TrEMBL record:
Source organism superkingdom: Eukaryota
Domain (SP-RING-type) ranges: 289-370
Signal peptide interval: none
One cellular component (GO) term of this entry: chromatin
Protein name, entry field: SP-RING-type domain-containing protein
Entry keywords, A to Z: Metal-binding, Zinc, Zinc-finger
A Pfam family the protein falls into: zf-MIZ
PANTHER family xrefs: TONALLI, ISOFORM E, ZINC FINGER MIZ DOMAIN-CONTAINING PROTEIN
GO BP annotations, alphabetical order: protein sumoylation
Species of origin: Parastrongyloides trichosuri
Length: 389
């Protein structure tokens, strides 16, 4: 077997593993095992393990690889039939501006599809439950696609994301919003699970998805095939006639740079810290806040509000009106889920651009890294009340 054959064989093997892990449903794996004349178990996990075992242990395994790839190809052809009624989404009027809420874990957005409109303004005229499909065509940039072809992974610093907004007139800043009962597929594979998770404040309310972009990286990587040299994709969105009555949504697909937690923290640490002198003025204001009560000191927690461990890098926000700091590392990490950027103490906006490091607390923690509670007196002295054990 030549080097080229070995390379193609390895890529086909990895493709099969991805299909088993991410694309095939339980019934698909059962069909394949029966075709290979292998016994089928009642537990789906055991069937998946069995197919992996056959794929890795069979010598040669060319026949198994060939059948799995053939099965996937036939399945894709079958799915094309279900998309007959899919029509392209309308292109958004470019004279309108869509100013999206700023993201801090992604930057340098490059539109891959233009803003496209999906709507159902005449939904009330349709009786019953009807699903509509709208397609959005896009191409992945060559530098990303070539990386996937050669490595089988997304570049570490790149992402492909879907953003969806509900159109309101004269809105200054749009957040990511999705119609209820919204589904997406890419190249005929269902990827609805990639949409942000659903939340429900009260049992009687409809579930709403978290206001965050949809990260499509997994779908793009799964679409890799050794023989597929093109980077063109079709994203199909499905919604029912009752999910967005008299509403219009705009969708766009972007290629962007990913920002790591470490990069955000590094940028914040490089900024000038809040001087001790300014902190002392804040402390004085706090101690004199009630003229009828003589407050000698402020008792402040030095414990992370998220992990309940001692703070390592103490920060507050410019909108905060309290003395209590929080831990920068855990705060950045928790916001990666949906980028709320709200102070855990006062619930006011506290984005990375609004964060500052307290020099006063930094000096305390440098000398007392296990401190979790401290009394601070008006002359600037302090006493550790409690340490982490």
């Amino acid at each position: 077997m030549s080097r080229v054959d070995v390379s193609n064989h390895r890529k086909e093997l990895e493709r099969c593993k991805k299909l088993i892990n991410f694309n095939f449903k339980d019934e698909d794996i059962i069909i394949i095992l029966r075709k290979l004349q292998e016994p089928v178990k009642s537990v789906s996990l055991l069937n998946k393990r069995k197919l992996h075992y056959l794929l890795n242990r069979a010598v040669p395994n060319d026949a198994i690889i060939k059948y799995i790839l053939h099965y996937e190809e036939e399945k894709r052809k079958d799915k094309v039939e279900t998309e007959i009624n899919t029509i392209p989404a309308r292109i958004y009027d470019k004279s309108w501006q869509i100013n999206m809420k700023e993201l801090y874990f992604y930057k340098n957005f490059n539109s891959l599809s233009n803003w496209c409109i999906i709507s159902n303004c005449n939904g009330r005229k349709v009786t019953g439950f009807v699903y509509y499909n709208r397609s959005i065509k896009f191409s992945v940039p060559k530098n990303i696609w070539s990386h996937i072809l050669s490595n089988g992974n997304m570049p570490e610093n790149k992402s492909i994301i879907l953003r969806s907004v509900m159109l309101y007139p004269l809105n200054n800043e749009y957040i990511d919003v999705y119609p209820s009962d919204f589904k997406i597929s890419i190249n005929y594979e269902d990827y609805t699970t990639l949409l942000p998770r659903e939340t429900q404040k009260h049992s009687k309310e409809k579930k709403q998805r978290v206001n965050y972009p949809t990260i499509l990286d997994k779908a793009i990587v799964n679409s890799y095939h050794p023989n597929n040299k093109e980077a063109s994709f079709s994203l199909v969105v499905s919604f029912n006639n009752q999910s967005m009555l008299n509403s219009e949504f705009c969708l766009n697909i972007f290629e962007c740079d990913k920002i790591s937690n470490e990069d955000i923290i590094s940028d914040i640490i490089k900024r000038p810290k809040k001087p001790v002198e300014e902190f002392m003025k804040e402390l004085e204001t706090f101690l004199l806040s009630d003229p009828e009560i003589n407050i000698e000191n402020a008792t402040v927690s030095l414990q992370s509000s998220i992990l309940s461990v001692p703070i390592k890098i103490p920060f507050r926000g410019v909108n905060c009106n309290h003395l209590t700091p929080d831990d920068l590392d855990s705060y950045i990490q928790i916001n990666r889920i949906k980028e709320d950027w709200l102070c855990k103490t006062c619930k006011k906006s506290c984005t990375p651009n609004e964060i500052f490091i307290d020099q006063f607390y930094e000096e305390i923690l440098k000398s007392n890294p296990n401190a979790i509670l401290v009394d601070i007196f008006k002359n600037g002295t302090y006493q550790i009340v409690k340490t982490f054990e």
